[in-house]
Amino acid sequence: MSTAWVKSTDSVELCEFEQRNRQDQSCGKSHNWIQQGIARINTKRRIKRYGSCRRSVDDYSRFFLHVDSEDLPRYYAKCREFAQIPDKLGHSIFFSDGLRKIDYVLVFSENLEDTKRRKNKDKVATESTWSTFSQDTIDLTKKEQWRSQFLANIKKSGLEIEEEVVEHGKKAFVFLKIHATWPVLCRYAEELNLRAPLLLKTEKSDLRNGSDSFLKYFGLPNPMKLTMPTEPLHFYTCPFRENKLHRFLGSENKDTYFTTIQRIRIVNEVLSSAVFGTQRKGEVGINRLVHEGVFIAAYPLHDGPYVVEKKKGVIKNPEELNPRQILYEYWARWGRWYKYQPLDHIRNYFGEKVGFYFAWLGFYTSWLFPAAAVGILVFLYGLVTVFDNPYANDVCEKPGKYKMCPQHEFGKFWDLYDICTYIRISYLFDHPGSVFYSIFISFWAVSFLEYWKRKCATIAYQWDCTDFQGVEEKPRAEYAAKAPFIAVNPVTGVREPMFPKNERGKRIATGLGLVFVMISVVIIFIFAIIVFRIAIAIPLHNMNMTRGYAHTMANLTGAGLNFVIIMIMSKFYEWLAQKLTRWEMHRTQSEYDDNYTFKVFVFQFVNFYSSIFYIAFFKGRFVGYPGNYVYIFNMRNEECEEGGCLIELAQQLAIIMIGKQVINNFMEVGMPWVKSWWLKTKVKTKKSKKQPNKNQIQVQEDYYTSPNEGLFQEYLEIVLQFGFITLFVAAFPLAPLFALLNNWVEIRLDAQKFVCHTRRVIPERTEDIGMWFKIMQYLAHIAVITNGLLIAFTSRFLMKLLYQYEYNWSEDGYYDFILSWAPNGTYSERCRYRGQRDENGNYTMFFWKLLAIQFAFVLAFENGKNPSPNFFSPAEFAAVKEYSMPADKASDALISHPSLVLISDIAV
């Protein structure tokens, strides 16, 4: 007699096949099919639970591999029936009765005396406390009234509440555990258009990797391939309707029909739309209550602990792990850094929004490999040929050859030989290889975006979330509460809250005005840093010890100060952008996220890139010449060193890009630990011989972790990085390498943050990465322009090429040619300065020829590369979203859309 499942409550009960057969035979069902299916696997192993009280339905996919296809629907329902398995170790996510699942937790603190007084008012049951207590609001504070009204309203909605109290000195921390009943789940499942399973997909997931297909083609082993103990299932689905419940898979068991993330979405919707005060004042939803301090936390529970018990470093039964442990063991820990990401598992635990983020981050990181490899080769080329550079050798040959004019009013004459080392180093960032690399990166950026578009369509199809934003997404709770009237949605035909377009347009215009004001503030700061850099360069240049490095030290100091200002301003503006976006009243969460993203990125673009644009395209171009210099506050305008501005640009890029990555990674590691330590300190209970309630452990453990702050900062960090490695890659070919190294670390840090160190995120549906993709498209367009301008005007590539063509192909005498003599009578001695001018200060014919060539090069560079090649026509791309499936399942699509052959046969 083989044991199939183990139920664990206070004592372990074995559920045997004979017991299940008797139960189902009484309902007129035969179990020959299930016995035959499970007989092919090791049914003698007892399936225990370590942490989660409910195994996700998709975790049972390993059993389906041995069941005939015609029995899959019935077998799926049976696995749903067995899914509710309590936890032996006490990390329970059930109410104290062991039956009702905890879907959400609310936490607030109060004086211990108030807690005892409140409990004495109703000793019958914790659930009924709120219905009676909410009516007695005479002596309550405003926050207590809000809390009481809120809890009474969510109870009226059908949610059930159980209370746990943790005493800490004279204070009490109250944990309210919330359970959604079946009527609530059905009602809100229809309102939210949740997808319900109709039929199991027998074909495998098409979320393959290009490297896997490549290695398989050549018959090579793939060390990156990840073998999971379970493989999630995929279904054909349709919107849930309660009157058609019998047609959906798994509908026989109401306790396990809705998945964990569906239950969390429903409860979160109830909490977000519950009114606790005046609706027109926006006194709606749990987020407002947490912001006002009425509750100190609101979160769904993790599925038990993430720590995996091992014997001698080996997991005895990996198929027995809960979903959180699976994610930690096979994805989040550092030992898995070289493995593919289990995207289906991530999606099933955190929702589509988090799944898309990690899919995009992994895809982008894999595409950084060729960019980083070529960048290293370009840099090595410059390193190998640096001492063969005839231009630097001309300067470094002997001192006293080029006597230079003073670089400021109180400066001295100086020798170009003093910055010989600087000129050699500048060659590393300004050589012919940089031109090739900028062209390569322009093509790389465009190709990456096009292939991600295709990958995104495939993922959206596999995860059944195509057209989610246009049809399925509902209005935000705050929008619905403040909208003044009801109207029919022209897309869905459903009556829903509406906000006047004219009023919203005025608010959006006002918000854009404030954005431009903040951009102006950033530009003022940049101007102040320029003045600061000029001011400190003067004393440094006057000292013999620092003369050769005066500009370098001034630039590094200014870059460091600029970085500090950038980080401070970015935090303030994110707060302001959030306030503005809420005030603008966007209908859906996707619209809200897109508008918030746009505001923040426009500001951050100016914040992070303005100083870089200044160095790349403006510094040293409005200086004048001896006897006719340009002044700012009685100080001569700054200019680039004789080695050119590209090395200064590389310094600025390195400080901002690498410094930002280091600080962000440190914050991601340190801040969750600090917040968790602080929460544990606040709620730490006194030592007691009494064992803690097992139902209380998981609730408190999740509270001790840091609140999850979402994905915005993660996207912002990587998209800004994408801008750094595309817009100015001609000046810093090692940028993709640093980005690749950072992203390797970033994936693990983000994975550990979501799995281990923060509370469970609210699972959200989406069909793409939103506004971030459009932003990257804009950056790819701008990158073509900036790299063309860098090569033409900032680099000396064209100047050297024209000199070789017209004067000396051997490159001898280059510096003697490009350095002009100061006009007679300007200084006491004859000296030279950088510029193509004659002795009267007029531009030479060489300057005008060079200018014409520079403009011609920019035009050729822009038009020579199409920044947005169309791999597919709009109709074909629409078909991608509709027919993204294996080749043997897409014959109709391939006939209508031949381009889809590429999609079906090639995995990205």
From TrEMBL:
Main location: membrane
Domain Anoctamin dimerisation intervals: 94-343
Listed GO CC annotations: plasma membrane
Record localization: Cell membrane; Membrane
Transmembrane segments: 357-384, 434-452, 508-536, 556-576, 596-617, 718-741, 778-799
Stored Pfam families: Anoct_dimer, Anoctamin
InterPro entries in UniProt: Anoct_dimer, Anoctamin, Anoctamin_TM
Ranges of residues in domain Anoctamin transmembrane: 346-863
Family matches, as PANTHER family: ANOCTAMIN (PTHR12308)
Record's protein name: Anoctamin
Organism placement in taxonomy: Eukaryota, Metazoa, Ecdysozoa, Arthropoda, Hexapoda
